Amino acid sequence: MKGYFTLFTGSDAQFYFNLKAGNNEIILQSEGYTSEQGALNGIQSVQSNCGDDDNYERKVAKDGSPYFVLKAQNGEPIGKSEMYSSTQAMENGIDSVKSNGKTTKVEGHSDGKEFNIILNKKPYKVSSDTLNGAQILALGDFDLSKYDLFLVRGNDQDEISDDQVVSLKNGMKFQAILSDIKFG
Prior knowledge:
Elements: E1 4-9, E2 15-20, E3 26-30, H1 36-49, E4 56-60, E5 66-71, E6 77-80, H2 87-100, E7 106-107, E8 115-119, E9 122-126, E10 130-132, H3 133-139, E11 147-153, E12 156-160, E13 165-167, E14 173-178
Parallel strand pairs: 1-7, 8-14
Antiparallel strand pairs: 1-2, 2-3, 3-6, 4-5, 5-6, 8-9, 10-13, 11-12, 11-14
């Protein structure tokens, strides 16, 4: 049975995720994020960084319990483990994150909302009701320095800046266009 992520809102109104093993045990917990998209980006960071043993910082709590922190390539923490009874149990936990962390299965969303949007004729499901231009471009892996984003409405196109927040509605269409191509 494969692992999966759960995404939820905490009592502090921040967004969190847990990575669970196939037996439904939590093996990695995230920090709090101010937006759901931030938590989703955190999940992507787990997927990218979980396979490299160098990204695991092994620690010991004040009471002597071993635990670990998964870090991104830039050294920023992504998530931490529970406290373990032994170093071997902690190493088993790391192995579990390595084998389950690449999963693309994400259960639950903070508020249950999902929006279907189109970017360059490709559909994307997003669970946030707002995204900025950079986040929309990131859905399609478009380089921010090379592409401009446009909201398409019929024959009209409105440019969206990287930091401009868009309130999403189902079926919204966006077009990413190389920056040096201009409309005539």
